Amino acid sequence: MSSKNFLDVDESIIEKNLLIQSNEEQEFEQFVSGFLNPESGKLVKPAPGLCIKLFKTDKSKVFINLCHHADIPPPDDITKEELVEVFNSKDPEKFCIPLSIGIEHMEIDKSNARVPVYDVAVNSEFFKKCQNDDVFQTFIVCATIEGVAEKFKIDISAENPIILKNRKCIGSLQQHRIQQRPPRPSTFKKKPLIQELNSKASLSQLDIHVKPEYRIYVQPENNPKNIILDVWMPDVHNSQEIDLKCGEDCLMLTTNKQTKYELDICLPYTINQKNVNVTFNTITKFLSVVSPIISSN
Questions:
Q1: Residues 45 and 173 in one domain
Q2: Is this model's pTM higher than 0.70 or not?
Q3: Which residues form the PIH1D1/2/3 CS-like domain (predicted)?
């Protein structure tokens, strides 16, 4: 049998070319669909904004390209204080943000692995507002993650998203078809611009007192060893602003900013007060408290 010489080929080059071809075919199909059915919407190419790295519950990586375009309808104008009020209203649909979520496409990350990527586009002016304010940026990142998870029925961990500093997107942004229809109106009611205050009111009375959103769960579920408390405080910038006190079966939390978060809850288990682990994520604004459970046996 005659021998043949073969060249070693980098498979990632082949995969990358195949992926580019696949994306081009998807965009071509979108273009033809719009040409045959003009009423289906306007085809636009958004500009890059933020690249968000996340993980599924199975530890596999997921990327979201948060991009923007001027033709996407903007949400209702809202202040930071009003946005905090929406978060604590138990009704997140009071404030609606028009999102254009593209189809899943596979790209190659810096470790040369194929990863799923989702492009989510928002209005350009609203994106600028989110860039200049941590509360708005936290809100749009959370809304984007929730939108992708709901549309594609995937379980994404939103506790520690990583916003990549050196890149605005991964792969090539896809075209989006923008429906020519007005956005769903928000039901959030703004407070009057002029509000009568008691002339004797002190500055402390004008502070905003808010009960933050939180959730409690145990790990593992069948035989709990740890109880975990996650508290979301979008107006807190660092851990120095938080005062946390742990009892055997209770937790008390306060902050010293103008937006004063206050939380006093009873725990369903007795915990080891000397071995409590507390972390605060300055990007997601989540405080995580992990406490070992003292066995009742």
A1: yes
A2: no
A3: 220-293
